[in-house]
Design brief:
homodimer; 5-stranded mixed β-sheet; DNA-binding
DNA sequence: GTGAAAGCGCTAACAT
DNA sequence: ATGTTAGCGCTTTCAC
């Protein structure tokens, strides 16, 4: 590590000006050939790296973007991150990860990082803005792309999947197998993503003329243990379901775990459909039937949109909708008689 | 977003100097009371945030650290990250995530981020240095803490678990259940972590006087599908094992998945022990017997060590060894006759 | 306790 | 094609 050479050191050693060195190193095409090569060579030899603070201060850009999620601990976000990262790197940007844990203060902190020059733009996947009066106004024209979740009426560009449609497809699959008593464990309401998936469930049920009994729509929080608990409650009902559509895979794992403890066979006694297609879902036993999202693609699309905005492009009015796939595996079977 | 007020704006509005504003905002205790409060108030009112590039340039510190892993996609790292992050935040540092994908160029890039001022220190969890001649010398005195994996002879402080001891305990558990034909699916050799776990396996086998037949030590790469494939190969052997100690949970999931496909019961026909205790391991079916590491604690310990170094403390000579626990769950049972 | 002034390392406008 | 100069926004001596 030791000495950190600066542009001036290189310049002095070659008897040229600092400006020339800067130009040579930035491929500006403004430096002539005998000098150019010598500068590059010396820079490499001295192991020179430009100081980012100085450069960012001067250029007023950080060449970094912020990707903000609720919970870095959720493996779901990782493949999205990979998509974001690959696209960002290709454009010379680095990616900072932000983790809010649903804490409003931390949400604000990440928005602050935009204002203090830590990052030039943000991909927001928390599904909400900090609950502060007038907050939206203060960030309305910032370079922000909302992905995965939705923030209505904020005017930000969106990259999403059709949660409602995907949920409807999943429930229709269950209905097609002859199930009539189908329950839904949702995510936190009234968050839009949770509501959309629940709406898809309701739409499919209604279209098939099936009733949704009291207690068939317990509200969860996407966590494993909650799936377990809500499943138990479902089976304390006078008329328990024969199929459950769960709003995400993690809760679905909890549900299946609990069903097993209750001595019920999956899918013999109860069918289960999840949502997300985590990398473990296929190796789970039984392999989980679930809705698969193009995660890396979501990341790439969001980052591309953000790059457009940073380059001065306009913000797209219409959300980008990416397609989902229902992966039919081992946790769904015809309804028991 | 709009206007980004600077210190000068605040100063002018109050008729004080920029220096005073800077001092007031940094809690230096050098500004007297009538002024102090007014500055703070105006700063809040103007929604002021100091520009990080300018500050970092001036102070020559980024107040950020880099946590570099092989694969952000591995949920294993997430809880470590949480530990690192919590400790870092408390000390006023932010955490940048680095993802190498085992690519030497990317590894170098992250070291460069130390030199270009992006970060002040690094927590390295890749288990190796970039394979460049003289590389070690160039970073030998950088503020780097190695966690999880080990880099021998580099002189960096380490935060680790006793991989060999934990592996030996795991295998002894199997031996205690009466198993004699025990195979081990390892991680990539010759990486130290993989080798350590394999050594633990060998030590336990030898101590029990058990032979390790040819083909009983297939080498994997910690990935799900590899576990599947190597398991299949194991059962094409003339004398297949009755128990398998797998170097991580992800491969163990693959192994169990494959055993099921082969029509073998876990743990009735074959016992399996993993290593990591992922958050899904307990909900898996059968619940996985595995070695649990104190992940968040590893993150906290590593970050604390790094903070010490950044504060000018000495680098500890002896690695910090954190304790592991063998979680005995549902994938291990007495050996079949 | 506060202000004036210098300077962190870099890039960009202007000059030649 | 290269050099000179100024300045990004902040913190920190050094004065008073």
């Amino acid at each position: 590590m030791n000495e950190r050479p600066k542009i001036k050191d290189i310049a002095e050693r070659l008897g040229v000006s600092a400006a020339t060195v800067s130009r040579a190193l930035s491929d500006s095409g403004l430096v002539a050939e005998p000098t150019l090569s010598r500068i590059r060579e010396v820079a490499r030899e001295m192991n020179y790296r430009p100081n980012v603070s100085a450069r960012n201060l001067r250029t007023q850009r950080a060449m970094a973007v912020l990707m903000v999620v609720r919970d870095v601990g959720n493996p779901f976000y990782l493949e999205i991150l990979k998509g974001v990262e690959a696209t960002a790197r290709a454009a010379g940007y680095s990616v900072l990860m932000g983790n809010t844990e649903n804490d409003s203060d931390r949400e604000v902190e990440y928005f602050d990082m935009l204002r203090d020059g830590h990052a030039d733009g943000m991909i927001l996947m928390t599904g909400k803005l900090p609950a502060r009066e007038g907050f939206l106004d203060s960030v309305a024209d910032a370079p922000i792309v909302v992905a995965l979740e939705e923030i209505r009426d904020a005017g930000f560009p969106h990259v999403m999947i059709d949660n409602e449609g995907a949920a409807r497809d999943a429930v229709e699959h269950l209905i097609g197998l002859g199930h009539k008593r189908i329950a839904h464990i949702s995510g936190p309401v009234p968050e839009i993503m949770s509501v959309s998936r629940r709406n898809g469930y309701r739409a499919a049920m209604q279209a098939a003329g099936l009733a949704i009994p009291d207690g068939y729509e317990p509200v969860g929080d996407y966590l494993l243990h909650t799936g377990q608990r809500l499943c138990r409650e479902l089976f304390e009902l006078p008329q328990p379901p024969t199929a459950i559509f769960v709003a995400n895979d993690e809760m679905a794992f909890g549900v299946i775990h609990e069903l097993r403890r209750l001595g019920l066979d999956v899918p013999g006694d109860v069918s289960v459909v999840g949502f997300d297609d985590l990398f473990l879902s296929e190796a789970f036993y039984p392999p989980l039937t679930t809705v698969s999202q193009p995660r890396a693609e979501i990341g790439r699309a969001a980052m591309n949109m953000l790059l457009d905005m940073l380059a001065g492009g306009l913000t797209p009015r219409k959300p980008a909708m990416l397609p989902t796939t229902l992966k039919i595996r081992g946790t769904t079977a015809p309804a028991p008689k």
